[in-house]
């Protein structure tokens, strides 16, 4: 499962005719103006609902196998940041 923070951070690309012709590799439908679309870091675009559902179960791009951060990796990073910010004597209680 991909990190929910990474999934929500996927950018929303501007609609273009070229992207519309390519369409969504998850559902196979062409993009239409007004569709909610998200772009992965590898530059592949998908319907927002299609890629969100896919990334909750499988964290790789269906086109090129680019790997998104795992949910547990994201949690580990947050824990490390919290531990680093807690230096001795910094506690105010």
TrEMBL record:
This is RING-type domain-containing protein. SUPFAM superfamilies: RING/U-box. InterPro entries: RING_finger_E3_ligase, Znf_RING, Znf_RING/FYVE/PHD. The keyword Zinc-finger applies. Keywords: Metal-binding, Zinc, Zinc-finger. The keyword Disulfide bond does not apply. It comes from Setaria italica. Residues 72-93 are annotated as: Disordered. One of its GO terms (molecular function) is zinc ion binding. Coiled coil: none annotated. Residues 24-65 form the RING-type domain.
